[in-house]
Specification:
InterPro entries: NAD(P)-bd_dom_sf, Sc_DH/Rdtase_CS, SDR_fam. This is Glucose 1-dehydrogenase. The chain contains 8 helices and 7 strands; from the N terminus they run βαβαβαβαβαβαααβ. By secondary structure, the chain is α/β, with parallel strands linked by helices. A 7-stranded parallel β-sheet has the order 3-2-1-4-5-6-7, with helices on both faces. It is globular. The structure holds nicotinamide-adenine-dinucleotide (NAD). Nicotinamide-adenine-dinucleotide binds next to α1 and α6.
Length: 269
Amino acid sequence: MGSHGPSGRLAGKNAIITGAAGGIGLETTILFAREGARVLMSDISQPALDRGLAKVLEIVPWCIKPATILCDVTKESEVAAMVDLVDTWGGVDVFFNNAGIMHAHDADAIETSEKVWDLTMAINVKGVWYGSKHAVLSMRRHGKKNGSVINTASVVALVGSATPQLAYTASKGAVLALTRELAIVHAREGFRFNALCPAPLNTPLLQDWLGGDEAKRHRREVHFPTGRFGEAIEQAQAVLFLASDESSFVNGTDFVVDGGMTRCYITPE
Ligand code: NAD
């Protein structure tokens, strides 16, 4: 892993990552820290944040030490408090709305309960709205001219699936639509909004759910031209690009990182 130190691709930028203790969130924290950003890691679990921070410091001990904060993204006051902290650093430059759930009891139109629907929408959609809103407010307060917000959707927002998780799919479709609109509304202020669309990955979110069920796993794996699920680090690399000024003319995209899955009809033997 190369060391870029204070002259890294995100040098001088303050970044907030929600769900930072999880698969994509932690890999992104490591890359952001490696590339010189000052990172605020947030999640709903303090022990998970502590473990995550220890891993970051093990891999990039010379980085600006990330701060950690508990934040449930469904609570606007907690999102605002998180942004308040970064305001003391000079305001938000990058906001990665990454926290999301795929509920074990999310199913089709008949079987999905209202409780699962509401919880999924609260975290995956309302949380992204709150993060986007408070990112904009902070960027404005600090006169930022090139902020970047990355909102995590999913390939299920782009292609249908016969293994339904209706609430999750609907929530990710909402993330695409709201991100596109935010991108247009705030473009003249210099604030970019892009939606990340990961394919199924080797992270606890999916792998815990699949467990040892080989048939369930194969049902998904067979659709990859690459023949494999993605890795969290492969998403993090895309987020780093979207966060950095290298992507200064990339705005309002559905940024698909899927090994070609959504572009494929029949996979290689
Ligand atoms: P993960 O479960 O490893 O991490 C998610 C993190 O979000 C966890 O640390 C969790 O504690 C946190 N979180 C959950 N509820 C929260 C809340 N209310 N407030 C704040 N934090 C909360 O998942 P991951 O695979 O790293 O997924 C990250 C994002 O990527 C999610 O939005 C997910 O929907 C999306 N995604 C994942 C996959 C995949 O296959 N893993 C595919 C497409 C999209």
